[in-house]
Structure formats: C-alpha cells, structure tokens
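re the bet — no i am not wrong, look at it urself. input seq straight from the record:
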Amino acid sequence: MTKIMAMPAYPNIDDLIDQVDAILLGYKGMSVNFLFTVDLDYIEHILPIVKEKKKELFIALNKNFHSSELESVKEVMHKLADLQIDGILYYDVAVIQMKNEYKIEIPLIWGAEHLTTNSATMNYWNHHGADMTYVSGEITKQEILEIREHTNMPLIVPILGYLPMFVSERHEIKNYLNHFQLNDLSSVYYMEKEENRYPIVDNEEGTFVYSSHILNGYQEYLEFQEKGIDYVLCNENFINHDIFLKIITLFHNQNSSDEAIDTLLSGNTDKGFFYKETVYQVKHYD
C-alpha cells in the first residue's frame, strides 16, 4: 500500500496527522524548501503523538552545508538517532559520510531533488548507506515506474504541491530591494512571466523559486499504488491550510478525482513533468 507523506507549512499537525501515514519536517537552519521548520524541542514534543498514532516522522537536513556547519549537523544527527525518528532526508554527501564514519544508526533518504532521476545512481547510494530515495519532480511517470522496476529502495514521489525550480545562496530579492531602497518585508514574493506567477522565497538560506502551478497527481497516485510506489508526498507550501486538509482527506479516502482537486485549487494546477519528456538537443556548429 502506498503511504501518504505530508510536508506541513504550519506548526499544528493535530488536524493533519490522522489523514496521513508520515510527516516530513525541515530542521531549522539545516533544511531548504520548508516554510515551517522545527528544532529538537518541537520534535521531542510531537514524536510521542506521532508514535502513539502509529505514524512515521522524517526530518530534513537537506541543505548544502559549509564546512563550519558539519559539527552541528553531526550533533543533530546523533540526537535524532537517539530519538529514533524514522529517517533523515539529506542532500549533502557529508550526511551519508558522517552516518558511516560515526556509526549513526538512522535511516537516510537521498533527496538531491534534481539528481534523483535514475535507478543506477540510487542503487549506488543504497550500496553506500542510503536507505530510501526522494524521487525528482522533474521526470516522467513512465521513468518513475521504470525506476521502481530496477531498484529495491523505497521511493518517495512528489504528488501534490508547488515544485522547486531554482535555488541560490545569494539573496536575490533582498539585494534588489536594498539596491532600490524598497521596503517590502513579505514572506513570499511573486514573479510574473508569460501570464504565469511564480512564488519566490528569500530567507536566511538564500533565494528559492517555485513552479507557477500546483502539481495535481491524484490519478497518478492511484496508479502508483498498483505499481508498488512506497510513498507519495503532498507539499502544503503556499496552499491554504483548510484547502490542503480537504485535499489530504480526499487522498486518504480515495474517493476523489483530478477535477475535484483542481476545483479546490482554483484551477491553478497541472501535471508537472509526469508527461513531459526531457529532450537534450546537441547544437550543431558550421
């Protein structure tokens, strides 16, 4: 059975947890693409609730770390292992190296979003200590199903939400505002291009740009269940909380349709890359 994993954008998960199988949270100062991040106190507070309801809790340490941060990352990994959470989502190779070097007993999810595109690399990292893979949101449904056939690793597939497109450690928005002496303290900015509106976040970790439309993969979720996909991820970022709860309930009860979810999201949806092949064209020079 395919499990539903939620990535909340708000601190209160009480109204969400009964409708999902797993929760993914970003760790404060050590994760990216999370509007809401947590610390150890928060994790220690909610973990008994999660376990009592027989759910799973995953924590993301998925930023690209500087050398000066590695000691702190190691300490957090040890503490998360002591708490016996269900796994850490990572991007930086340093995380898997520290797990192996310091014998930290905790499952790892390889989550380099734009690189997790093929079974061969997944199997390589599985051999070196990764336990699961968060599959890229930039490959087709058929490619995901082919990966399923060629790896034994559990897979997490993004199925609902805005997809990350661009990241920079530089503060592109804040630098622009400062240069033109503009006073705008919004938590989310928007870029409009060709009638599309792209959410942008500029926080302490850098600048992040997201897709203009919300991925709605409800029908694909039903197919992924038949094909043995282990988890699907529903991302709440930039989605109204009440609407997100309604959608999660529809996923949980499996009594909906693409059209019903499109309506809840005011039609601002698409199928992401599920049916868009990436074509590389070599330029010819005369």
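see?? The radius of gyration is 19 Å. told u. also The mean pLDDT is 95. so pay up
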